[in-house]
Design a protein that fits this description.
The protein is of the alpha+beta class and 499 residues long. Strand 2 and strand 3 form a beta hairpin. Strands 12, 13, 14, 15, 17 and 20 form a 6-stranded antiparallel beta sheet that branches. It has a 5-stranded antiparallel beta sheet with strand order 1-9-4-3-2, with no helix packed on it. It has a 5-stranded mixed beta sheet with strand order 16-22-21-18-19. It has helices at 208-212, 315-324, 331-341, 346-360, 365-383, 394-402, 464-469, 491-496, and strands at residues 12-15, 24-28, 33-43, 51-59, 66-69, 72-74, 76-85, 88-98, 110-119, 123-132, 142-150, 158-159, 163-170, 178-179, 182-186, 191-192, 198-206, 217-226, 232-243, 247-255, 262-271, 277-287, 407-411, 420-428, 431-439, 449-453. Helix 2 (315-324) packs parallel to helix 4 (346-360) and helix 3 (331-341) runs antiparallel to helix 4 (346-360). The protein folds into 4 domains: 1-152, Immunoglobulin-like (Sandwich), CATH 2.60.40.3880; 154-292, Immunoglobulin-like; 299-376, no CATH class; 405-496, no CATH class.
Length: 499
């Protein structure tokens, strides 16, 4: 039986944007560092197979341009994408991605965007990606894999993935960029610098007609929320009434010119005619907009009266309490609280502190604070150092932000390794099976630093194993991502199989 192949789409070229805290596929040598960024989205086809779209962005500065004509240079990347299940490859694409031709090597800073579409039956797949630069023989092929799920039910109300898009335009012919009459240029980096004033996105809602009938109607509600405390940004909201169809399409653009720097979620809700939320979906993104400050509101209007906050009258205690909320505060709240700790303005500190907890539990902010402070005391007892309170350490921050891990590997005496811990969370909000790796060079200090995590928005370090084993093995080659396979090295095994 022949294996179906995905058709190669046309190649797009964009100016490369700065990307931070994103999934990166990296292979390095001394001259070039092959850097690419991956994202994907899943969609359904009523009456047919669903499909996965894979989006790749390659940094032009990380690949080798060679002469192809007089005063013309071009780079290439060989790419293989495959989808396997039960050791059988069900679909793949193997192709060479060509850069545009340039006449000035100084213009090699372009970004190269590629999209592929794969139709597959419903199920779970191991998506494998291999990349190599045929013009740079010093770098071996780089490969990675990830589990992706196609979970669609043709009788249930469902969202497709939310696809972030760089821009969209009316389609003049059908290509693999085309959906419902528009060519959608993928936004591979979920990062918006200050120069980006619009957040464009596309999604589909399936089977509304089966749920509400052909004459049915429903409401789509969208908004931006802080990814850190889930508070809604009320200035970034949209609503749209829709007629129930087998497939309802949402292509929308939000003005984010005044959205401050921070980590956010774009949230979409489907509400019925009683305004009850019956379905939701969200996607994470980051924003850098240093010229815009977060508006915390007029704290002078907050009345603390006889509240618990009014009873905290000691300036040092207030400063300590303002510092300890940093793990669960938004970026703007952290900045504001930090600046308050540099003052002696006790009334403003009290108002801010009360307002912070009232936003999280309007009816009983004191119980919300007491519940959190119980956890603060736990991390202070467990993770404090000679110079830091427990909530200021990496382990304390992660514990307070995400809660206690489901499993902890504590390995303090492995030969050749610095003491390390690996925390495993079965669920982390909408994420699954996320891990945090902490290490220290000195057990006496009790200060374990976070050196790697695969959770969204956290430090990602593909060479984290070298940080653990650098005590006895420090390679000169920057190609190395892991130590030599020596008996007793257990960090990677614990990472992949926590126990």
């Amino acid at each position: 039986m022949s294996i179906p192949q995905a058709k190669a789409t046309r190649i797009l070229f964009l100016t490369l944007l700065l990307a931070i805290n994103l999934t990166a596929l990296i292979a390095q040598n001394q001259d070039k560092s092959l850097r690419a960024y991956l994202s994907y989205a899943t969609f359904n086809v009523p009456g047919g197979d669903p499909y996965i779209e894979v989006y790749l962005a390659i940094d032009g500065k990380s690949i080798v341009f060679i002469p192809v004509a007089e005063k013309e240079y071009q780079a290439q990347v060989d790419i293989t994408i495959s989808f396997a299940r039960s050791d059988s490859i069900l679909s793949f694409a193997k192709y060479t991605l060509n850069s545009p031709k340039i006449n000035d090597l100084g213009r090699a800073a372009i970004g190269i965007i590629d999209q592929q579409r794969f139709f597959l039956p419903v199920g779970s797949y191991a998506m494998g990606i291999e990349m190599s630069d045929p013009n740079n023989s010093q770098v071996p092929p780089f490969s990675t894999s990830e589990i992706v799920n196609l979970e669609f039910n043709n009788d249930a109300l469902q969202f497709s993935a939310i696809q972030l898009i760089e821009r969209f335009e009316t389609a003049t012919k059908q290509t693999e960029l085309t959906k419902n009459g528009y060519d959608l240029i993928p936004m591979v980096y979920a990062f918006y610098p200050a120069s980006a004033n619009r957040l464009n996105f596309y999604t589909e809602i399936y089977n509304a007609e089966k749920v509400w009938g052909a004459e049915g109607k429903f409401l789509v509600n969208g908004f931006i929320e802080s990814a850190e405390n889930m508070s809604r940004m009320n200035d970034f909201v949209f609503r749209k009434r829709m007629d129930a169809k087998p497939v309802n399409v949402i292509l929308h653009s939000l003005d984010i010119a005044q959205l401050p720097s921070g980590n956010y979620n774009l949230v979409l809700e489907v509400r019925d005619q009683n305004n009850k939320v019956v379905l939701n979906n969200k996607i994470f993104f980051q924003r850098s907009n240093p010229g815009v400050e977060f508006r915390l509101g007029d704290l002078s209007s907050v009345v603390v009266g006889n509240t618990f906050a009014a009873r905290i009258s000691n300036a040092d205690s207030l400063r300590d309490f303002l510092r300890c909320i940093a793990p669960i505060a938004s970026e703007a709240e952290r900045d504001y609280a930090y600046n308050l700790t540099k003052t002696t303005d006790i009334p403003t500190m009290q108002r801010f502190f009360y307002n912070f907890w009232q936003k999280r539990n309007y009816d009983d902010p004191n119980s919300e604070w007491q519940k959190y402070y119980l956890e603060v005391r736990k991390v202070n007892a467990a993770y404090s150092t000679k110079t830091k309170r427990g909530y200021d350490t990496d382990r304390g921050r992660v514990y307070l932000k995400y809660g206690p891990p489901d499993q902890v590997v504590e390995n303090y005496s492995e030969p050749g390794a610095y003491p390390y811990e690996i925390w495993h969370y079965y669920t982390l909000g909408r994420q699954r099976n996320k891990r945090f790796v902490f290490a220290t060079k000195d057990m006496v200090t009790n200060d374990f630093a976070l050196i790697h995590s695969d959770a969204i928005g956290e430090l990602s370090n593909y060479r984290w194993q070298l940080d653990i084993y650098k005590r006895t093995w420090d390679p000169h080659s920057i190609d190395a991502t892991s130590p030599e396979d020596i008996f007793g090295n257990r960090a990677y095994d614990f990472y992949k199989n926590p126990r």
